[in-house]
Amino acid sequence: MNIKVVLEYDGSEFVGWQQQAHGRTVEVELKRALRAITGQEHKVYAAGRTDAGAHAEGQVVSVQTDGRISPHRLVAALNARLPADVAVLSAEEVPDAFHARYSARWRRYRYRYLDRPSRPALERGRCWHVRGPLDADAMAMAAKALVGKHDWTSYCSASEPPEARVREMRSARVLRRGDFVELELVAGGFLRGLARSIAGALAEVGRGRRPPEWVGEVLRARDRRRAARTAPAGGLTLVEVIY
């Protein structure tokens, strides 16, 4: 039975989604919980490999099981065994052809900035506290240059293969919500470091250090050295995967 599982997690204490030689990962915690329930090892496939410190509200995972436990029962069984910073929101049977990563059409990420004078207490680790007010309108204007199909060399990790750096950004919006400024990015796939690098560049515009057109100029330059500081991972959340 092929099962689609939707997770949320606080990434503060994880070194990312993907299993690694060192450090705590969400993938290992999920596989450990599945093993405790079924007595078997499972391969799990996630829609996105979130960074160390990044969060998820709607991470999607696909896993093959022997069908002895229903998806409904699996939700409760997993939540009873997962740590407090990971929770299963839903599980359902899907066709065998479904793959959490390769079947996804779009992924929606949110980056949150907090620009009030006081540091956060309740939202610590869930946003980037920047000093001084951000001009959300200027940031929104700058983000328009990101929409469309582009070579993202300037904004992605140098470890990404050059031939794989062309991706389509479906939308890029910036809105103010009270003391928070929120960046929402929707794309088919996100290269390593892309969302946080974009967030860092837009912060330069919001602080008045760069004009809005600078974000597009950096994109067209295809030169990673032109980019700004990468934004901290804590402000980034995988919100939704669209199939």
Explain what this protein looks like in three dimensions:
Strands 1, 2, 3, 4, 5, 6, 7, 8, 9 and 10 form a ten-stranded mixed sheet that branches. The protein has helices spanning 26-38, 71-81, 136-143, 194-206, 213-221, and strands spanning 2-9, 44-46, 55-64, 86-94, 106-114, 128-129, 148-151, 166-177, 180-187, 236-242. 22% of the residues lie in helices and 30% in strands. The longest helix has 13 residues, at 26-38. The chain folds into two domains: 2-94, 2-Layer Sandwich (Alpha-Beta Plaits), CATH 3.30.70; 106-242, Alpha-Beta Plaits, CATH 3.30.70.660.
List keywords for this structure.
243 residues; alpha+beta; Alpha-Beta Plaits; 2 domains; ten-stranded mixed β-sheet; 5 helices; 22% helix; globular
Can I get a quick summary?
The protein has 243 residues and is of the alpha+beta class.
Task: Sketch the major β-sheet.
Answer: 10 strands, mixed
Q: Which parts are unreliable, with pLDDT below 50 for 5 consecutive residues or more?
A: none
Coarse structural class: alpha+beta
Count the E strands. 10
Principal-axes geometry comes out as globular
Computed Rg: 19 Å
Average pLDDT for all residues: 96
Corresponding CATH architecture of the largest domain: 2-Layer Sandwich
Number of helices, where a helix is a run of at least 4 consecutive DSSP H or I residues: 5
CATH topology of the largest domain: Alpha-Beta Plaits
